Amino acid sequence: MAVVKIDLDRRIGAIDRKIYGMFIEHLGRCIYGGIYEPGSPLSDARGFRRDVLEAVRNLQVPILRYPGGNFVSAYHWLDGVGPKDQRPPRPEPAWKAIESNEFGTNEFIQYCREVPTDPYLCANLGSGSMDEAAAWVEYCNREVGTSHANLRAEHGFEEPHRVTYWGLGNEIYGDWQIGHKTAEDYAKFARECAKLMKRVDPSIELVLCGGQELDWDREVLGKCADLVEHISYHFYWGPVRDQDPHYSTLAQPYYSELYWQFLWQLIQQIRRDQHVEHGIKICVDEWNNWATAHPDKHAKDRYDLTDALSVAIYLNAMRRNCESIEIATLAQMVNVIAPIFTSPEGMFLQTIYHPLRLAAEKSGSIALDAHVACDTYAADYLGLPSVPYLDALVTLDEAGKKLFLSLVNLHRDEAQHVDVLIDGGAVRADGAAHVITGESPETINDFGKEGVSCQTESVAGLGARFTYELPPLAHAVLELDIA
Ligand code: AHR
Asked: What spacing in Å lies between the alpha carbon of 69 and ligand 1's midpoint?
């Protein structure tokens, strides 16, 4: 039994569509053999996999982050531009691979145009220099007339690429990162890079490297707030050791939600203290369930139904926090912890693809502040005394004509009888329910097998008050017309 009370006038705010972004890195088969496979009968003349492109387009990806990740912290972008036969193969220290540099900045931009999506480039603030970061901005964004912009034109791109979003390095707080730095050292370096990059193109927006840790975030934002528009946040999750794998996985998004609230307060405090007039928002530029790497997981590289539900909850949580979160890019888009999985012969959609597509397709742009009452369970191992068995997000479209209820029933065995009470209006008697579910928490998708998919059914008997029965282990989006 659960209650969702909706007041059509109680708005949280506008949801930025950039939260439906994705990330591609030079890692494993994400780029080579993922989005890009020249010579394959499945690819177009530029080597872009057409089947993958179609699946990407269905996700309506508004922004795409590139080229890393850990990879970027030793990446020199000049290696990846110009005639392909002159690009140097290099040892790649982040993932201990060889990088051919066959795919680089211009291929990435062409891919973005083809999707279409906005490019988001992350600069190398690990082994790279200020000059190198600024030269990349010049190469991408300046009109011809200066050396790196001229070089772009020589490479066949007369018009600037006009890349708005730039990351100031990746996970520099971690010892695993090439060029790892303390918060103090990073803040100094990031500040100088930001200054120089913005002098080359003042219109760019910068993403400071956050650390998912308040001391780091306070130090780096405290030193760079006047120069940046975003601070990054990364979160991966899976089952918690020695805990119920299903319920501990599904508790994880709430852990993130708590941190965003701390971080949002910190941002406002720093802006106030330093009189920073422009807004600074959270950029969740790596997030995903990484359970496929968990040693106890039955099928490595295959997501299951629990994983899909956890992604649905995370998407709900980001939209509930639309005031503070402007950009999010799922790590990663293809093959590497990803919703799309390829082989040289074809591809399939992982279970997590379905909630991503549903969120992109069936969500209003305004989040409402719904009140949810339901049974809960304790996840004290994450510092969460009460995790709701029913996760709910309510959104309204811009015109105020459609209401969307995005519901997730975390319960493994029991259906939720959801009483929906609407104040300030009602919905028409008939609507649609888009439902993602499967036989068990472990149900997976694979080549030629779809255990978890999205089905649409009609719902009737709606109004200002109605009850919707959500089966166990299910995510449903109710698409309703305001009466
Ligand atoms: O997405 C995989 C890796 O996870 C990224 O390269 C890194 O930033 C993070 O640790």
From this structure: 5
User: What angle is formed at CA 327 by the lines to CA 308 and CA 13, rounded to 5 degrees?
Assistant: 90
Atom 6 of ligand 1: nearest residue by CA position? 69
The best mutation among 171, 177, 283 to test binding of ligand 1, ranked by most ligand atoms within 8 Å of the C-beta, falls on 171
Gap from CA of 182 to ligand 1 centroid (Å) = 19
Atom of ligand 1 nearest to the CA of 25: 6
The Cα 10–Cα 14 span in angstroms is: 12
The pLDDT profile of the chain, 483 residues, written as one tens digit per residue, is 899 999 999 999 999 999 999 999 999 999 999 999 999 999 999 999 999 999 999 999 999 999 999 999 999 999 999 999 999 999 999 999 999 999 999 999 999 999 999 999 999 999 999 999 999 999 999 999 999 999 999 999 999 999 999 999 999 999 999 999 999 999 999 999 999 999 999 999 999 999 999 999 999 999 999 999 999 999 999 999 999 999 999 999 999 999 999 999 999 999 999 999 999 999 999 999 997 666 555 556 899 999 999 999 999 999 999 999 999 999 999 999 999 999 999 999 999 999 999 999 999 999 999 999 999 999 999 999 999 999 999 999 999 999 999 999 999 999 999 999 999 999 999 999 999 999 999 999 999 999 999 999 999 999 999 999 999 999 999 999 999
* 8 closest CA partner among 367, 448, 292: 367
Q: Given the CA of residue 68, which atom of ligand 1 is nearest to it? A: 6
Q: Is the pTM of this model over 0.90?
A: yes
Q: Which residues are catalytic?
A: 171, 286
Q: 413: burial class by Cβ within 10 Å (0-12, 13-18, 19+)?
A: exposed
Pairing of strands 465-470, 281-289: unpaired
The verdict on the CB of residue 92 being under 6 Å from ligand 1 is no
Q: Helix axis angle, 183-200 relative to 214-224, nearest 10°?
A: 40
